[in-house]
Design goal:
The structure is a homodimer.
Chain A (H helix, E strand, L loop, with lengths): L5 H10 L7 H12 L4 H17 L1 E2 L6 E2 L5 H4 L8 E5 L2 H8 L6 E4 L17 H10 L4 E4 L5 H14 L5 E4 L15 H9 L2 E2 L3
Parallel strand pairs in A: 3-4, 3-5, 5-6
Antiparallel strand pairs in A: 1-2, 6-7
Helix pairs in contact in A: 1-2
């Protein structure tokens, strides 16, 4: 039966774009969504996804998700440390850091340097980042890429790009275990890692 | 930031309709789908879901998912046991049974009786099922609802509804599963397995 319903097959395939969803889970999800009692919810999910894709873009300044031209984090006048900018790999990492009372700005790379996957500085908007740092009047750049090999490589590359500019460059402390991903750290650990950031400008 | 993007909030909420997806996973999925490199896939997912909802309905005869009026399982002339009909709670159960070379027809209840959740015989299309059995010329009804309290209750109810009709009614066997170790089986299961022991003397 299932094999003869192309659109059901298609849905199962597409569901696998979701993180951590394999063949088995995708099938379970598809059958769940098409059950009579869940169809309204499923319809609203499709609408919500389409509407989010249509209306949510990236902040012109920090590449964070926003429905506007510039995100509220970049616009906000209330943030106590507007001269700090924290570079993270993805949205989730920024959200995790925001939980730690960090009061500066952000820049979201949307990934990290990876020659294997062909991810270049251009893909990470690093030129945009450098420009942002130059024009934003920042005094400190906090490198908060993951403590993975790619994250460290990216941080190292950013440090090189920022060399010679009149600002403090810091890296989150090694309070975060090697291989750990910021999105999954608990607040206290992450807060401590920010607190213990070490100066690496010289 | 996130809190100020209503459509992102909406997407996170809607993603929770997926089975086994909680707040944390929903957020992770939403951010993943909106990342630049995944937007095409996300768009295709939204399309696939909408298209499936629009085109896939229930088989008029067995309530299985199909794009047609009657599903291929009900239409098929090749099935060796067209006089058997197997009643299951949901699509996934039918798919699981189909893996076992079962050659009869199916009927999908899309749930099981649950006074607490207000699920009535009407919701399960049991009237449709009785009609199907009467008109389908079946010789055996196999009750394959889950071995849970609700499943057993539903099976019991179906048995009552079928009483007096000229056909064999059977229930899938309960016992120790393949590879099961007796030492780890619960008492009731083991007791029933002993009670339902089958003669293998010849």
């Amino acid at each position: 039966m299932i094999k003869t319903e192309p659109r059901l097959q298609e849905l199962m395939t597409r569901l696998r774009v979701l993180p951590g969803v394999g063949l088995r889970t995708a099938q379970r999800m598809a059958l769940h969504l098409l059950t009579a009692s869940h169809r309204n919810d499923a319809h609203e999910l499709a609408q919500a996804l389409q509407s989010a894709l249509d209306s949510i873009g990236n902040c012109r300044l920090c590449r964070m998700l926003t429905e506007d031209d510039v995100c509220t984090w970049c616009r906000s006048e209330e943030r106590a440390e507007p001269a700090q900018i924290c570079v993270v790999e993805n949205y989730g990492d920024a959200l995790a850091i925001e939980q730690t009372n960090y009061q500066g700005r952000y820049f979201v790379l949307q990934g990290c340097l990876s020659p294997l996957e062909g991810i270049t500085p251009k893909d990470l908007g690093i030129d945009l980042f450098i420009q942002r740092v130059q024009e934003g009047g920042f005094k400190e750049v906090i490198l908060a890429t993951n403590l993975t090999v790619e994250g460290e490589t990216t941080a190292h590359y950013l440090r090189e790009q920022l060399a010679g500019m009149q600002l403090k460059i810091s890296r989150i402390a090694q309070g975060v275990p090697m291989g750990g991903e910021l999105g999954y750290m608990d607040g206290p650990t992450l807060g401590l890692a920010l607190l213990d950031r070490r100066d690496c400008s010289h």
